[in-house]
Amino acid sequence: MDLTGKAAIVTGGASGIGLATATALAGAGAHVFIGDIAEKEGELAAESIRETQGKADFVRLDATDQESINSFQKQVLAINPEIDIVVNVAGWGKIEPFVENSPEFWRRVIDLNLMGPVAVTRAFLDGMMERKSGKVVIVASDAGRVGSLGETVYSGAKGGAIAFGKALAREMARFNITVNSVCPGPTDTPLLAKVPEKFRDAFVRATPLRRLGQPSEVADAVLFFSSDQSNYVTGQVLSVSGGLTMAG
Residue 234 falls within a domain, yes or no? Predict the structure, then answer.
C-alpha cells in the first residue's frame, strides 16, 4: 500500500497501537504527525521513524482539551497544510465494576474515548471537504460492539465512537471522505500490561486463536482503511480480535 505524498494524524501515537499505526503509515510513505500527551515517548517515536527514513513529527496533544486540540491543529497545518488521513487511536480505560466508578472516572473515559475522536476529527475536516478527499479511521474496541464486563462506561464510549463514525460516513460521502472503525480485541499493549494477570489469561482462553493480538496487526487494518485499497469502503467496522467477538 502506497501513501507517498500523504499526510496523516495519529493520536495516541507514542506507544502501543498508536505507535504501531504511525510506524505502518510512515513505512507506506506518509508524513505522520504523532499527537500524544506523553512528550518524551512521542519525541522518541517520531525519532525512531525518522531513523528508518520515514517522515514523522511529534506535536503534543491532549485529546480531552479543546485548547490543546486547537494548538495541535495550528502547529500541524503550519508544517503541512493538507492532511489526508486522521487516525484516532488515543484511548483509556480500566476494569472496574460500574457501581464503583466515580463521576470523574465516567467523564475521563467519555472525554477521551468518544469526545476525543469527535473533536480531533472536526479539527481537520474542513481541508478534506475542500479537496473532496480524505480518510478518517477510529480505533474503537469490540467492547463497543458487544459490551465488556467491568468496562461499562468504556463500552458505551466506544460504542458511541463507532456510531459517530457511521453517521459521519454518511455525511462525508458526498465529499469523497471515508470514515471507518477498527475494533481491537485484547491486544498486547502497555495499557493491557496494567490489567491483572488473571484477566489477561482469561482473555487468551476466551480467544479462538488463543493469544493476544499484536499492535502491528491492528495497524495493518488501519493501514487498509487509510489507503486507496479501501476507496469504496465507508461506514464499516472491522474487528481485529482473534475471533473473540464474532459480531454481526
Answer: yes
Overall domain count for the chain: 1
- Measured distance CA(9)–CA(21) in Å, rounded: 10
Q: Is residue 154 flagged as an active site residue?
A: yes
Q: Is the pLDDT of residue 194 over 70?
A: no
- The CATH number covering residue 116 comes to 3.40.50.720
pTM of the model: 0.92
Residue 212 lies in a domain: no
Q: Which of 124, 154, 164, 203 is catalytic?
A: 154
Q: Is residue 206 part of a domain?
A: no
Segment among 17-26, 74-83, 97-106, 190-199 with least mean pLDDT: 190-199
Summary mean pLDDT of the chain: 93
The residue range of the domain holding 150 is 7-185+217-239
Lowest mean per-residue pLDDT among 71-75, 145-149, 153-157: 145-149
Element (H, E) at 32: strand 31-36
Residue 72 forms part of a structural domain: yes
